[in-house]
C-alpha cells in the first residue's frame, strides 16, 4: 500500500501535566505508550485541548494489549477513557465489545470541507478506533560503536557471522515472524499467506532459531535506544520515532535501516462504558483534526493519517530539523515497506503468542 508523504520507561513529568490531587472528577484519562510519543501527544493534543475546553488530561502509560481494558469493562469499573491502540487491538477490542463505536461520520471535516472519510488514508479509520499516525518498526545501530562494514539490509540483521553480537527484538511474534520469513527468502507480497500456514510458522521459528541465542528481548519502546546507548546490543528493532528522538534530542549517532520496515497505524479508541463518553468523543474529534495531527508531526517522526495534514508538516518544534526525510513514508525510506496485516493478527494473535512463549521457554 503506497501512501503519500506524511509526516509510537514511562516519561517522568508528562503525567504531571494533569496529575495529582488537583485533578477534577471530570478529567479525561488518556492512555498511551510513553516516551517521545506521549510527549508529542501532550504538546499537540492535551495542552491545546485543555486550553480550549478547560478539561484536564490525566496521562498514563502502558505497554499495549487489551487485558486492562477488558478487566475494566467486565467489572464495570472503567477508569480509562481514551486509549492509544495498535491496529489489531482496535479490531479485536471492537469485536469483543470493549470499545465504543466511532466511525468517520463523527469526525471533523478537513479545513476545506472534505469529509473525514475522504481525508483519512485508507485503513486508518475503524469501526471503533480512529487513526492518528503512520509509524514503523525498523532496526537501528550505533554508528559510533560499529566499526567496519555497516548493516544495510534485513538479511544483515540475521547474519551473526558478518555482524557478531547481540540483537534486540520486541518480545512477541509480531514483526519478528514477518522479518524471519523475509530473511528466509519469502517475498513481501506472500508473507501473510505463508505465515497463515503451519509450515510457514515453522519456517519463521526455524529462522528465528538461527539468532535466538544472540537476542535480548525488549518490551517497552524506550528500551531499544537505551540498549544501543549502553552497548548491550549491536543492533535492535525499534520504533522509528524512538530512534529519531535519540538522534535529534539526545545527539545519538544512531542509524536507521529502513529495509523491510513494517509500518502500521496507531489509533485512539474510547473505552466502552466510560462515564465521560461525550467528553472523550470531543477529545478524540479534536486530536484527530487536521491541525493537531500536523502539530504532532513536529514533535516526532510519525506521519499524520489525514491527507490535509501533509502540507502543514514542516520542521521539528525545537530542533528545527526538516521532518519529511525522517518519515516512514518518505519515498527513499518506503521502497521495501510492508504494511502490518491487522486482520491476520486480529485472527491469530492469541495462538501465535502462545506458540511464541513456548518457543522462548525452550
Summarize the structure.
Helix content is 35%, strand content 17%. It has 362 residues and is an alpha/beta fold. The chain folds into 2 domains: 15-134 and 264-326, Periplasmic binding protein-like II (D-Maltodextrin-Binding Protein, domain 2, 3-Layer(aba) Sandwich); 136-263 and 356-361, Periplasmic binding protein-like II (D-Maltodextrin-Binding Protein, domain 2, 3-Layer(aba) Sandwich).
Polypeptide structure, described:
The chain is of the alpha/beta class and 362 residues long. The protein has helices spanning 35-53, 67-75, 87-95, 116-119, 154-157, 176-183, 191-195, 198-209, 223-229, 240-249, 277-287, 290-296, 342-361; strands spanning 28-32, 57-61, 82-86, 130-142, 167-170, 215-218, 235-239, 254-270, 303-304, 338-339. The model is unreliable at 1-24 (pLDDT under 50). It folds into 2 domains: 15-134 and 264-326, 3-Layer(aba) Sandwich (D-Maltodextrin-Binding Protein, domain 2), CATH 3.40.190; 136-263 and 356-361, Periplasmic binding protein-like II (D-Maltodextrin-Binding Protein, domain 2, 3-Layer(aba) Sandwich). It has 13 helices and 10 strands. Helix 3 crosses helix 13 and helix 6 crosses helix 8 (198-209). Strand 1 (28-32), helix 1 and strand 2 form a beta-alpha-beta unit. Strands 1, 2, 3, 4, 5, 6, 7, 8, 9 and 10 form a 10-stranded mixed beta sheet that branches.
Amino acid at each position: 500500500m503506497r501512501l503519500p508523504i506524511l509526516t509510537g520507561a514511562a516519561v517522568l513529568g508528562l503525567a504531571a501535566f494533569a496529575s495529582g490531587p488537583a485533578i477534577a472528577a471530570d478529567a479525561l484519562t488518556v492512555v498511551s505508550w510513553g516516551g517521545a510519543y506521549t510527549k508529542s501527544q501532550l504538546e499537540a493534543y492535551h495542552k491545546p485541548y485543555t486550553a480550549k475546553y478547560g478539561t484536564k488530561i490525566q496521562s498514563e502509560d502502558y505497554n499495549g494489549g487489551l487485558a486492562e481494558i477488558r478487566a475494566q469493562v467486565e467489572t464495570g469499573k472503567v477508569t480509562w477513557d481514551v486509549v492509544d491502540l495498535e491496529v489489531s487491538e482496535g479490531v479485536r477490542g471492537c469485536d469483543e465489545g470493549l470499545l465504543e463505536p466511532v466511525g468517520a461520520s463523527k469526525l471533523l471535516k478537513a479545513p476545506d470541507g472534505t469529509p473525514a472519510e475522504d481525508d483519512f488514508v485508507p485503513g486508518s479509520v475503524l469501526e471503533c478506533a480512529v487513526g492518528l499516525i503512520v509509524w514503523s518498526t525498523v532496526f537501528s545501530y550505533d554508528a559510533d560503536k560499529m566499526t567496519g562494514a555497516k548493516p544495510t539490509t534485513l538479511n544483515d540483521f540475521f547474519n551473526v557471522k558478518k555482524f557478531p553480537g547481540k540483537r534486540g527484538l520486541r518480545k512477541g511474534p509480531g514483526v519478528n515472524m514477518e522479518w524471519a520469513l523475509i530473511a528466509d527468502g519469502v517475498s513481501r507480497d506472500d508473507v501473510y499467506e505463508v505465515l497463515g500456514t503451519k509450515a510457514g510458522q515453522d519456517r519463521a521459528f526455524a529462522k528465528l532459531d538461527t539468532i535466538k541465542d544472540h537476542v535480548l528481548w525488549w518490551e517497552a519502546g524506550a528500551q531499544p535506544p537505551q540498549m544501543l546507548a549502553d552497548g548491550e546490543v549491536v543492533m535492535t528493532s525499534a520504533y522509528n520515532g524512538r530512534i529519531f528522538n535519540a538522534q535529534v534530542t539526545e545527539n545519538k549517532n544512531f542509524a536507521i535501516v529502513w529495509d523491510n520496515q513494517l509500518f502500521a497505524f496507531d489509533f485512539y479508541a474510547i473505552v466502552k462504558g466510560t462515564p465521560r463518553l461525550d467528553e472523550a468523543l470531543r477529545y478524540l474529534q479534536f486530536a484527530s483534526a487536521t491541525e493537531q495531527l500536523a502539530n504532532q508531526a513536529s514533535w516526532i517522526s510519525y506521519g499524520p493519517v489525514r491527507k490535509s495534514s501533509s502540507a502543514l508538516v514542516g520542521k521539528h518544534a525545537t530542533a528545527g530539523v526538516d521532518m519529511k526525510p525522517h518519515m516512514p513514508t518518505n519515498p527513499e525510506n518506503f521502497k521495501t515497506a510492508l504494511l502490518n496485516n491487522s486482520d491476520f493478527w486480529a485472527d491469530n494473535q492469541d495462538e501465535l503468542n502462545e506458540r511464541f512463549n513456548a518457543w522462548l521457554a525452550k
